[in-house]
Amino acid sequence: MFEQLVDGIFWDIALWVFAIGVLWRILSIFRVRNKPDYSVPRDSAIVGAIGTNLHRFMPRREMISRTRLQVVAGYLFHLGLFALLVFAAPHVLFIEAQTGLGWTPMPYWAFIVAAQLAFIGLMLLWFHRIMHPVTRLISDADDHIAAILTFIVMLTGCMALIEEFNGLRVLHRFTVELWLVYFPFSRLMHAFMFIPSRAFTGAWFGRRGVKA
Amino acid sequence: MSDNLERGLEAMRGQMDTSVMSYMSTCVHCGICADACLFYTETGDARYTPIYKTEPLRKLWRQEYTFWGKLAASMGLTKKLTEQDLADWEELVYDGCTMCSRCSLVCPVGIDIAYMIRKVKEGLSAAGYSPGDLVEAGKRAVEIGSPMGVTLKTLEATIRVQEKETGLKVPLDVEGADYLCLLSSGEIAGFPEFIGSLAKIFKATGVSWTISSDYFEATNTGVQLGNSKMAATLVERVVAAAEKLKVKYVISPECGHAYSTIRWDAPNFIGRPLPFKVVHIMELLDELRSDGRLKTEGFAEEKLSYHDPCNAGRRGGVLDQPRNLMNMVAPDFVELPETGAMNWCCGGGGGVSSNERANELRLKVFSAKKRQLDAVNIEGLVTACSNCRHMLEDGLEENEMYDVELLGITELIADHLVEEGG
Amino acid sequence: MSNNRQSRIRHHRMVVFSLLSLLVLTLILPLIPYAVADLGQSAGKVVNPGADLWREVRQRDRSVIGSTQVKGVDSGVLINVYGEDWRQFRMQRLIPYGAALMGIVLSVILLFYLVRGPLRLQGGPTGKKIQRFTVFERTTHWFTVSVFWLLALTGLVLLYGRFVLIPLLGAEGFGMTASACKEAHNLFGPMFLVAILMLFVTFVKDNFYARGDITWLLKGGGLLGGGHVSAGRFNAGEKIWFWIAVLGGIVLCVSGLILDFAVFGQGREVMELSHVMHGIVALIVITVSFGHIYLGTAGVEGTIDSMTSGYVDEAWAKSHHDRWYAEVKAAAVEDSETEPAGGGSASTGVASPARDG
Predict the structure, then answer these.
(1) CATH class of B141-290
(2) If B62 and its partner were Cys, which of A44, B56, B69, C254 is the partner (CB 3.0–4.6 Å)?
(3) Residue C267's pLDDT band (boundaries 50, 70, 90)?
(4) What beta strand segments (E) does B186-303 contain?
(5) Distance separating alpha carbons of residues C174 and C162, to the nearest angstrom
(6) Which residues pair with C131 in a beta bridge?
(7) Are C277 and C255 in contact (CB under 8 A)?
């Protein structure tokens, strides 16, 4: 019964809530307009917007010694998770079954390594969050739920690895559905929002001729 | 709801824009902004975390601009923004932030945090929660024309002394001059040799310039307070003076926020483009250098370095010009570690040095600057902002670092001018 | 405190002590006939006419390895000699002795807590704090803890699950649970290597032998009364735990990797040996961790703060780690006496000169 719901209506609901929710959140930032800028730009704002979107992937040299753990763990997590989501064989097959789009998955050992790196990154980040006085002050429930929910999705996935028990697969899919529904209302939106934010900041500094 | 709170909320509502909406949805509470802010790194107090300083704006965004936030607030599930919040944030925002924007350069998801802190100030000042010293300075700026109370008489007296020392005329109210030069009260009072240096340089390079007796103040206390109406009023005075004298350019002197205000924010305060071009004095000097009109001789004897004022460099974009000028008179000058756009703030900008309540704090966080200076072993530190200079002087004295001299870049150039042949 | 109240507390303690002793005995006693039966072998064999043939097949004297068409590791071995021994070891020794070990130690700790009570901070806290562990040290520690416990719990399910969980979940339900635990255990295993290495590098420098360690051990660290015992940043007990955790952890990782990635030519014997080592060391490390957890939480007042906030009360520092406390204080005095001009050293965050445009 539960399995039918998870494979059926829950999945549809989760996808629709995710898609509409994300779109709504992105478009809603335009409910209030930016005021026009009457100053004479020194350099191109658009170049700044694109440039900052790319530059901010690399931490500034002056900040590396202070932020090493977050940068390393952050990349381990994000890159590992990206590799997992997009190139792990079970996911590739799933996406192909759903959409018809398929591509070559990565070898099994790479899947395992990516998963381990993603776990290490996520766990280090979350423990850092609860140990550091700054993040202790500014973190809220949303931050913790997002991290823990993501962990649970990854863990249930890992538990279903040998694809032997349908119950474990269903559990993983159910946690994914929870994650998808949670996404648009949460901190996880940063996955999309970083692009316009970097763009606005990049444009602001860009027209002043500062590489931001 | 109290009047104060309502005024504060209304002011912040007027500050909401697409950028803020985007930023508020993006922050993941990583805390990296704190590692860039000298008020956090030098005190260890997590409340100075830059994004934490924007709490009042974030709460407003949550409870009025998001679906779930509105729902939760109406059901009493979350605490709404209160007047006490505004009161509690006054110290963090005015004493513990110079709006140097270093945080804005390091946020991994690209949030311009200083941009938002500026908007929080609009709310706090409208609600009546700004430092008394700064409010008084603002009153003086509006009523007398200078936040420090420097009158035209004081300026004229200063000019007379400079004319005597240089043997040159300082042109006042010359209609049709190319350049109108503004001055900061801090310069007039503390570093008047800047005026003499300008006279020397402009004579040698044949620049037609003037100062306006109607309005000469470069600083803008409205910007420091977070009061856009006051900021606009002060900008209009500059525009009026420039239009009256029909100048092509306005020179922003050795001051940080004066430049970022008149060059970048002024047109937006008054809602229209400026009827003149704006240059920082360093931009002009660099132009004269590349034209070949500015000629210097000799080199500085001391080992020098350069301190980028936050609002001229990181927020203003005047980063290459000081280095070109330094290379003219001190080609072996050393860069501070973490320089240019990533320079550490002196700790006195954004109105902090005008706020006596913040004295202890700004001297405490000077340790960031001290650390930079300790790493380079210099005899002289050159800068292009009179407020930075005052702050650096205070900090060096507090730390008994008597062997570092402070110099203004314009004066440095003027001291090495090639004497005119005849 | 009145005499009446004192004697009532004593009475309660005796009752609890007795009940717990009964519990401990109940756990230990059944093992005695078990051991006795094991030591005595039943004599008298019936001669099997095919004994010689089957002896060769079973390769008890390892004289003949069969040849096969399919070539592979151990493919010439029809019946593994040590297989039954290994299975017997796992079922009859590892599982029950492991349970007994953990049960006894847990009981002893509980007993100790009820009888001796937590070690209170003498004279109470001063309210002044000093930093004991940095953010990185604490993050590393808790990261290791979480990976360890994930592995420990999934591992214990693999060892004890069939006894404890089948009654609860049924055979099929347990099959699913065990599969899930095995996958999680195998994925997190290599991560434990990363965690242990991080832990090692972070804490090793203060975990070498220092003068005073033997004395500390002889005095029982003050746990059994006798008051304050001198120690450096880490006392001898902590050092022993560090090395058990690291060395045990390495054994677990190596044996675990052998077990997890069985595609590098490991034969059955190697796998069995690895499993035995893995199981024994795991149970030992888990058991010792009970003591570490107890002392770090309920057992010694004021200790948990060191790993949560990173700061400890000065009274705690003086009482438990006096030599470390003295070093910290001396360094603080040195810092404040440093010449302000030119004498300071560039600290972290100050990079080489370069300009950013």
Answers:
(1) alpha beta
(2) B69
(3) confident
(4) 209-210, 249-252, 277-280
(5) 7
(6) C311
(7) yes
Measured CA to CA, the distance from residue B150 to residue B171 in angstroms comes to 19
Retrieve residue C192's tokens.
Answer: 């434990």
The order of strands in the sheet holding B209-210 is: B209-210, B179-181, B249-252, B277-280
Strands B380-383 and B405-408: parallel
Chain C neighbors of B326, CB-CB under 8 A: none
- Per CB-CB distance under 8 Å, the chain B contacts of C347 are 371
Taking CA atoms, A184 is separated from A15, A21, A192, A193, B23, in Å, by 11, 5, 10, 11, 15
Determine the residue among B112, B113, B269 to mutate to test chain A binding: the one whose Cβ has the most chain A Cβ atoms within 10 Å: B112
Q: What is the DSSP letter of B213?
A: S
Whether A133 and B44 lie within 8 Å, measured CB to CB: yes
Model confidence at A121, pLDDT cuts 50, 70, 90, reads very high
Give the minimum alpha-carbon distance from C189 to chain B in angstroms, rounded to a whole number. 28
CA distance A132 to chain B (A): 9
In the three-class reduction of DSSP (H, G, I as helix; E, B as strand; rest coil), residue B217 is classed as: strand
Architecture of the domain made up of B293-415? 3-Layer(aba) Sandwich (3.40)
Phi, psi of B408 (to 5 degrees): -95, 145
B43, with CB counted inside 10 A (0-12, 13-18, 19+), is middle
Element (H, E) at C122: none
For the segment C341-350, the average pLDDT, to the nearest whole number, is 35
Residues in CB range of B386: below 8 A, 6 or more apart? B184, B186, B187, B190, B191, B194, B253, B254, B255, B408
CA atoms within 13 A on the CB side of B309: 32
**Weakest mean pLDDT among B330-344, C16-30, C311-325:** C16-30
Task: Starting at the earlier edge strand, list the strands of the sheet with B405-408.
Answer: B304-307, B380-383, B405-408
* CATH class of the structural domain B3-130: mainly alpha
Q: For all residues of chain A together, what is the average pLDDT? A: 96
Structure tokens belonging to residue A81: 């998770």
Question: Which domains does chain C show, CATH number per domain?
Answer: 85-334 (1.20.950.20)
pLDDT at C348 over 50: no
Q: What is the CA radius of gyration of chain A?
A: 20
Residue A168 near chain C (CB below 8 Å): yes
Do the chains contact at B372 and C350, CB–CB below 8 Å? yes
In the predicted structure, residue C225 carries a pLDDT above the cut 80: no
Q: Distance between CA atoms of C218 and B110, rounded to whole angstroms?
A: 58
Give the three-state DSSP class for B249: strand
CB C262 within 8 A of CB C271: yes
Q: Do B3-130 and B141-290 share a fold?
A: no
Take residue C20 and report the two structure tokens written for it.
């717990």
Domain ranges of chain B: 3-130, 141-290, 293-415
Tell me whether residue C148 is exposed, middle or buried, using C-beta atoms within 10 angstroms of its C-beta: 0 to 12, 13 to 18, 19 or more.
Answer: buried
Q: Which of B149-153, B211-215, B248-252, C330-334 has the lowest mean pLDDT?
A: C330-334
Flag whether pLDDT at C340 surpasses 50.
no
Report the pLDDT averaged over residues B312-334: 96
What's the complex ipTM?
A: 0.96
CA-CA-CA-CA dihedral for B16, B19, B20, B21, to nearest 10: 90
The CATH architecture that domain A2-24+39-207 belongs to is Up-down Bundle (1.20)
Contact B249, B278 (CB under 8 A): yes
pTM, two decimals, is: 0.89
